[in-house]
C-alpha cells in the first residue's frame, strides 16, 4: 500500500480520518485536515482556492451534477447545448472518482491507536 504525503507539511497521511483531498482547477492534492485549514487561510484570491473534494457538501454537489448530467444526456433538453452542459456537469463527478481511486482507497479507514503530532 502506497502512502500519501500531505502537500503542505510533507508528512505522511496515515488514514482517511485525517485526509482532505482538494482540487484547484485540474489538480488533486492530499492534505491533513489541519494543513488544509492553513492553506485556506493563506489563499488570497478566488482563482487560487483549493476546494475540498471529499466533504459532505462536495458529495451533495457530485450527486446533483450526476443527476443533471444524466438528465441532459438522456433527454433532448436544450439539444446540443444540453449535451455540452451535461459534459461540463461531469467534471466534479470525475474529480471525486479520481480522488477516491487514486488517493482515498489506498489509505486505511481509521487507525485505532495512532500518535498525534
Any overview of this molecule?
It is built from four helices and five strands; from the N terminus they run ββββαβααα. By secondary structure, it is of the alpha+beta class. Helix 2 (56-74) packs antiparallel against helix 3 (79-89) and helix 2 crosses helix 4.
Largest sheet: 3 strands, antiparallel
Overall geometry comes to elongated
- What average pLDDT do the residues reach? 85
In the sheet with the most strands, the strands line up as 4-3-5
Helix fraction by DSSP (H/I, runs of at least 4): 40-55%
The proportion of residues in beta strands is 15-25%
Q: What order do the SSEs take from the amino end to the carboxyl end, as H and E? A: EEEEHEHHH
Count of β-strands: 5
- Which structural class fits the helix and strand makeup? alpha+beta
Radius of gyration: 17 Å
